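Hi,

Apologies if this is the wrong queue. I'm a grad student, and the batch job for Pilus assembly protein CpaD from Caulobacter zeae produced an output file that my downstream script rejects. I'm not sure whether the problem is my script or the file. Here is the sequence I used:
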Amino acid sequence: MTRANTLRAILAGAALLGLAACATTGAQGPAPATATTQWDDKVKVTAAPDEVLLAVHAEGLSPRQVQALDALLARFTEAEAKELVVLAPVGGAQAPAAGRMAAVARAYLIDAGAPRFAVRIDSYPADGDKDPPLRVGYLRHTAEIPRCGSWENLSATRNNEAYGNFGCAVTANMAAQVANPADLQGPRREDPADAMRRGVVMEKYRAGQVTASQRDSQSDGAVSRVVK
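Support response: The file is valid. Your script probably expects a header line. Output copied below for reference.
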């Protein structure tokens, strides 16, 4: 191999090494897809119980306890929470009355509009408490919004990179406006398919009929005429 060919081989190898170095991301892992992706992990969602404590009465719920349950149910519906739990104390002289009152409280919440599948009864140890209350509540999720600051000179773009707070305001606004912060933790489960409608469509398909729904007058796009 001549001296010129050797020099060309060395330069070519150096160029390949340079390209490989540019392609690697280092030990810190892959870089964010966009400059705004870095703020996705800055929103923290926490859950804390929102509950009311009801004194156990042998005769059932008092008027004030009914008002407390109504207010709790309103907050539960507004928060779009998944489960409303009625906790009855186990142990003590009032344990039987607490169990009966728990059933009454669940029935009242369902009659007041709570989904039947979302209200359940559970228990907790009284731990020697003489008058353990009936605890009714749910987990309320809140979002901790990132604080945006350190706005540098936006005209200084010599390195052609996004400034440090790019995307922070949008992320903070979205986290503040979301109806249920629990949605930020992951998607909701899909509703079950309509088996009856699916059966009707399959029967029409097997018979060679049109599977679409019948068209009515409200979907023909015609402009209504005013009767004079």
